[in-house]
């Protein structure tokens, strides 16, 4: 049998097209941010008091996905810590993604652990975690900047208690100071906040506008120079990636993903990156996006979608809202979950249509009224495979609702 280590040796010896693929990931923070100097300088202006041992104003940063909010804030935070070291001023920057750290307990514990406090992931009263954090901050004189990315996620899930505690923490500290940077895609998320929190949190607002195609091209060009080997990319590729992403509300993340996935497709075939790879990458990313949406649907929506998939699998014809509802009821009973009303199921079908997962067209049945004819927009096998990763649906794998028998 061939030595398994030689398999990797051969792959490592292959001459790929990437110098450093990580540079094409949205999480990478470059040293220079094209077309964001105004916003970067504004954030730096607000945070510079930290270098004097003073409390910076809190900031709320808004903008659509892929407009450079996170990368700009991380860039300024990195420079702040670096300058603090030069001036012997303790400027600590803590970054939290509230999609992951999505409760008040987790957020406070995460910050406390940043300062070497041994706080468990669960189990303590929140007040105890808060006091541990306060003690950790006051352990030595410092100015801490806490960055809450996707701040609206934690508010939507856990309310504004976390912001209440963080906004009042300065009054409880003796030696240290805290400022907050909230980052959000939702311009209206502050409407649900207590007015006092809203007032203290939103001392400074910064808006990040979408990029246009020319700006996206500059961003991709800057990254590609270090990420992709010379001569491995066709001259039409970067303008095409930029044009596609500009249609998606100027989303730089989308542009970077397009270029990276195009490179992966080209590298697999031992070719330079060409426009046809970009078009294939566009299809792949869109499919991956929809599958991820399916993966995160609520259970009831998953059951409705699985009812549609099962009908297509067993019958292959378009179906009506009423037929979906009958199938949904059988599946819901099979896995012992609450059966919703037909009106609610109609709403869930409309939501699936809006997400682009299915196609639901209203048709007239004459004197019988109107209904929706429903069909799948995507491969039923791929959708079903994703749905069946949910343990609650796994025993429906071979179930055909139209016959009540095993397939």
From TrEMBL:
Belongs to the CDC6/cdc18 family. GO terms for molecular function: ATP binding; ATP hydrolysis activity. Involved in regulation of DNA replication. The keyword ATP-binding applies. Residues 305-387 form the Cdc6 C-terminal domain. Pfam families: AAA_22, Cdc6_lid, WHD_Cdc6. This is ORC1-type DNA replication protein. It comes from the Archaea. InterPro entries: AAA+_ATPase, AAA_22, Cdc6_C, Cdc6_lid, ORC1/CDC6, Orc1/Cdc6_arc, P-loop_NTPase, WH-like_DNA-bd_sf. ATP binds at residues 67-71, 211, 223. One of its GO terms (biological process) is DNA replication. The keyword ATP-binding applies. Keywords: ATP-binding, DNA replication, Nucleotide-binding.
